[in-house]
Specification:
The protein starts with 7 loop residues before the first helix and ends with a helix. With 288 residues, it is of the alpha+beta class. The protein is built from 10 helices and 8 strands. It has a domain of 191 residues: 3-Layer(aba) Sandwich (L-fuculose-1-phosphate Aldolase), CATH 3.40.225.10. An 8-stranded mixed sheet has the order 4-3-2-1-5-8-7-6, with helices on both faces.
Length: 288
């Protein structure tokens, strides 16, 4: 017997809970971010524009239709509502969307470093990779369209300088993807700080992703590629970049210079000779 869908009262409690969790986990601050959940095929419950997610309450929730028109609630719906609706339109399987500004993830976009890498087995299984979308002005239809196109193939994306968008079958599912993204970004940063970010061997990455799509699902377009030679993984996961500073193309930025030193004798002995000569000169000057 199919379980009854959650009631609006239950979804309101969930939206309040996960809004506050986003703030408590430092995935957003102040008035940043917005969350939404489907009430039905035609109605969406979302956070109000300009509300602090750490203190959000029932009065800060607004119901809108799929055209973005307010149906009930006080205040205005989030200014990013078009982005949420774009995701819902292209992905009927999504029931919740969370947009936040996870700091390490955003730092990766500011630094121009792609997160579309195959590094952690658990992330490959459940998310695949996380692409970074080109910069578009916040709150615009251009940004909403960009997110909608990307969400056809991904459950989680980064927007250049503007944060993450995660979709899920529930608010918990979308929130888990957001947490996973920030956790992964921290690990990638620490690995780079330690000297190198070693990626998964391509064959194992494809095996994991194929298994994950069959076991956990994902975007329908991705699930359809579960048995493809590379599953839905980008070329950067298949072709070894050989560097610890990858870009979206899987290669490090060209430095534009090369430094080398050629010597007939060991550098240490040359340095010692130069030091001994300098000492002799100094002594002779002192002795007159």
């Amino acid at each position: 017997m199919r379980a009854a869908p959650p009631s609006e009262a239950s979804l309101r409690r969930d939206l309040i809970r996960f809004s506050r969790l986003c703030y408590e986990r430092r995935l957003l601050v102040a008035m940043d971010g917005n969350l939404s959940v489907r009430l039905s095929d035609e109605l969406v419950l979302c956070t109000q524009a300009g509300c602090h997610k750490g203190f959000v309450d029932d009065e800060h929730l607004v119901v809108v239709d799929m055209q973005g028109n307010k149906v009930r609630g006080s205040g205005s719906p989030t200014s990013e509502m078009a982005m949420h609706l774009a995701a819902y339109r292209v992905r009927p399987d999504l029931h919740a969307v969370v947009h936040a500004h996870p700091p390490m993830c955003v730092a990766f976009t500011v630094a121009g470093v792609s997160m579309a890498r195959c590094v952690l087995p658990e992330v490959i299984l459940t998310l695949g990779t996380v692409p970074t979308l080109p910069y578009e002005t916040t709150g615009t239809t251009d940004l909403a369209e960009l997110v909608g196109k990307a969400m056809v193939d991904y459950d989680a994306v980064m927007m250049d300088r503007h944060g993450a968008v995660c979709g899920g079958t529930s608010l918990l599912d979308a929130f888990c993807k957001l947490e996973t993204m920030e956790h992964t970004a921290n690990i990638m940063k620490w690995a780079r700080d330690l000297g190198a970010m070693q990626e998964m061997e391509p064959r194992e990455a494809v095996h994991l992703r194929s298994m994950g799509l069959k076991r956990y699902g994902g975007p329908p377009s991705a699930v359809a590629k579960a048995d493809a030679p590379n599953a839905d993984l980008p070329a950067a996961c298949i072709d070894c970049s050989g560097c610890g500073s990858p870009t979206a193309a899987g290669l490090g930025a060209h430095a534009g210079f090369t430094v080398a030193r050629l010597s007939h004798s060991p550098v240490v002995s040359q340095s010692r000779s130069a030091l001994e000569h300098a000492v002799r000169v100094a002594v002779s000057e002192v002795l007159g």
